[in-house]
Amino acid sequence: MKNKMFVIGDIHGQITMFKKLLEYWNSEEEQLLMIGDLGDRGEDPSACFELAKDLMEKHNAICLRGNHEEMLLDFIKDPKNNAALYEMNGGMVTIDSFLKTDHTIYDAYELSAALQSRVPWLKQFIETLPIKYEWGNVLFVHAGVNLTVDNWKNTSDNDFVWIREGFYDQPNKTGKTIVFGHTVTAMLHEDHSNTSIWTTEDGKIGIDGGAVYGGALHGIVLDQEGIVKQYSVDNTGYAFNDLLRKE
């Protein structure tokens, strides 16, 4: 393991921004870690999955499982009971991206079967993604940990990928710096138009800049002492909507 970590926030299909941010990564000195949510809603989700897979195979990169990977996996396994939630959260953009077709010609079962047939590596890829990664005194998670329990390690798997309240609004007494995505930083800053990295004195670092909504894709370089460098790629192209675009 290298002594520095290059961490990328929620990508959500923004392949152009993803590739641009990787230009700042020093592969010789920095371990690459993606915080999760590779797809859904963005410019080209399948390309983001494929690039992440390539980085993992060729550079031993780490990718955490986000709630959007979790929803995709649930859809593949049980389309009847999970299609509505996945569609509501932008999942059909990912399915169309992989299948290169209009999803309206399929029902949920056909979509799941088509994904497993045409993208046979996808289900196993998601199943192997870890839900957390500890690196010395730094903890990487997609959404956060339950800070209302006595020991953060008792956080449920569901909370690791979904939690909001109960984490960012609670004091961090874990003794670890916690790096997370999931909650767009504009929702964490008092100024809700601010998409910059969110940090707290008690060791929380939020890096989901809302790239797919017109915000920014963040990358940070960490050592065991904290943030060494920060990089951001602003969204100047595709955006799911203009919610976070500045006038």
Question: What does the average pLDDT come to?
Answer: 94
- State the separation between the terminal residues, measured CA to CA: 43 Å
Low-confidence stretches: 242-247
The largest beta-sheet arranges its strands as 3-2-1-9-10
Instruction: Provide a count of the helices.
Output: 9
Largest sheet: 5 strands, mixed
Defining key terms:
247 residues; 9 helices; single chain; 32% helix; alpha/beta; disordered C terminus
Overview in brief:
The chain is an alpha/beta fold. The chain has helices at residues 15-22, 45-59, 67-77, 79-88, 91-99, 108-118, 122-127, 157-162, 185-188; strands spanning 4-8, 30-34, 62-63, 132-135, 138-141, 177-180, 198-199, 204-206, 216-223, 226-234. The radius of gyration is 17 Å and the shape is globular.
Question: How would you describe this structure to a colleague?
Answer:
The protein is α/β, with parallel strands linked by helices and 247 residues long. Helices cover 32% and strands 19% of the residues. The chain contains nine helices and ten strands. It has helices spanning 15-22, 45-59, 67-77, 79-88, 91-99, 108-118, 122-127, 157-162, 185-188; strands at 4-8, 30-34, 62-63, 132-135, 138-141, 177-180, 198-199, 204-206, 216-223, 226-234. Strand 2 (30-34), helix 2 and strand 3 (62-63) form a beta-alpha-beta unit. The relative contact order is 0.17.
